User: What shape does this take?
Amino acid sequence: MKHILTSIFAGLLLSASFGAHAGPEEDRKALLDHYRQLMPNIELDDYVYGALAMNPEAKEQYDMVMEFPAYAADVRQGGVHWEKPFRNGNRFSSCFKYGGINAAASYPYFDDKAGRVITFENAINDCLKVNSEPEIKYGSKEMALLTSYAKSLSDNAKVNIKVKSAGALAAYEKGKQFYFQRQGQLNFSCATCHIDNAGKFIRSEQLSMMVGQASHWPEFRAGTEPVTLQARFVGCQKNTRAEPKEINSTEYNNLEYFMSYMSNGLKMQTPVFRK
Assistant: This one.
């Protein structure tokens, strides 16, 4: 019965913004209400921990790992890259307000002039282009380590994604539609796992809630292997036997935009460890 109800909820959320008064904020509030009913004992601020918030023992182990994370040297390597001067004397910090402090909390955003979603990785490469430097491959380890450090400058800043223009709303809606679209041989959508079945187990893995998922990337798997949010999109689609999109595709950028909006108000925590 619960599965039927949450499936109905997913359909309502998918169509909500097409109503006369509904919009992204109404979507977010409806999703939060859904999770509060499903998991009433979990505090909203703890949603950033995903499935760890449902398992006190696992959360305690996570906290111990985070005291001396194995990836610390990798993040420092990203910091060296961030601070290294370009040939013209500028640095990455020159491209961001306040030198990049708290900057990542406002990404992705919709650029009306460009007519597309700009992710933080896009902004990194835009910075390189402006300074006549070669771009970094999107999804590469080099980009992951650089953004691990750069996003750490936004630790504890609250996610603050805006949907203001008609173009921004259209991109948001496309991201939402992708999230609820069933794909692949298993006929799963993102919502199948993270809305319909949040808190349940697939094999040994407990499924996290979608709210909070976009607040902590890149993450380090097995201690030292950086994984970006869009690389995780690829992995999820492969797991459901769907054909993945390209990293930095319009579809994935819109999806990241939608998911990030749903984490508005939660504190960023980047990078983090996941097993």
The two ends are 32 Å apart (CA to CA).
